[in-house]
Input
Amino acid sequence: MKGPREEIVYLPCIYRNTGIQKPDYLATVDVLLIYIKQPLLPMPNLNDELHHSGWNACSSCFGDSSKKRNRLILPSLISSRVYIVDTGTDPRAPQMHKIVEPTDIFWKTGLANPHTTHCLGSGQIMISSLGDPSGNGKGGFILLDGKTFEVVGNWELPGEAAPFGYDFWYQPRHNVMMSTEWGAPKALAYGFNLEHVKEGLYGSKIHVWDWTTHKRLQSLDLGEEGAIPLEIRFLHDPAATEGYVGCALQGTVFRFYRTPKGDWAAEKVIHVPSLITDILISLDDRFLYFSNWLHGDIRQYDITNRRNPRLAGQLFLGGSILNDGPVKVLEDPENQSQPPPRTIKGKRIPGSPQMLQLSLDGKRLYVTTSLYSGWDKQFYPEMIKEGSVMMQIDVNTANGGLKVNENFLVDFGKEPNGPALAHELRYPGGDCTSDIWL
Output
């Protein structure tokens, strides 16, 4: 937390579902000068749907001087390719290093639709999957060699894959890994249909894995209130045996924890108007943040009392219930008035806050507005036309509170090939959501 301030961030930018027949690309943004550094790094294929990224090395490789954080791992949610990007030679001008083709992943693992990337202490790279090559749900894990980036095989044992997959986080001190569920790729590929939830094509479970044996030990069913559990975060303290997961459909956050018996359980600790998407925890484990992508707000909770989070800050940055829009709120359990549209540097913000990344010192929260191109097109068609944006929020770390930096805006609507959808944010040196602590 006392390290140097962030200077650049990497963002995957997506053209799938925008009508622009150009490949997705990796953008490098200078957050001090507030501009997108050219040239961009385009992928060599169309319609990949770059989504989340990760590193070939993180703090779980601590003590091994041969491991360097010099490659950014870029899985493609739809094409199932994995791009390995060289960020070590010149951090401000990333270059393509290697491409792992989908057929290699299909044949060697039986998995598809890669999502979350974490490095392992062994130096290998592990990527969670959403499905199988036919578009059915399948929550397994792809292993890549940390030096050659060849597909090694599956992390999970044969027959142990979960029904659905999405995010994961591990805690080596406690020999445990937790994974979550989104839905079957064939259901979510082009939009959200509530009937698919009723048909069982979306998940509602947290899966508990033995980190040493790779066996699936428990599946915690969160029920209707916990439908579509997405981002999962252990506390950063490696001694902690608890964390939080954001559940999209009903707007809930569950705390998961190890019981005195040694097994794991979960309890609902936050409930807001839906749709919760991204969550993160500050490095000192004091604040939890999440974006409410349908509603339009970002929330900051003080989690000093782990079982009773306290709302410390809230900020609307767009969303679907703006007071000049077509939606009229008839009943709000929080008794808030409909928010006005947000304008920064003369631009009305399209879409809604989604992906979050916090500065290491906890004082700056970066936000982008794209969730996933198929859902962006469905819920915020104006963002498809105008492109997404990146914003910076000033955080009061003493007492809590959020305030927009009115001088910071990166507009992805002005890209050379047309408006793009910018998604997840990564720092070259690691961040609150990429590193596992030992």
The mean pLDDT is 96.
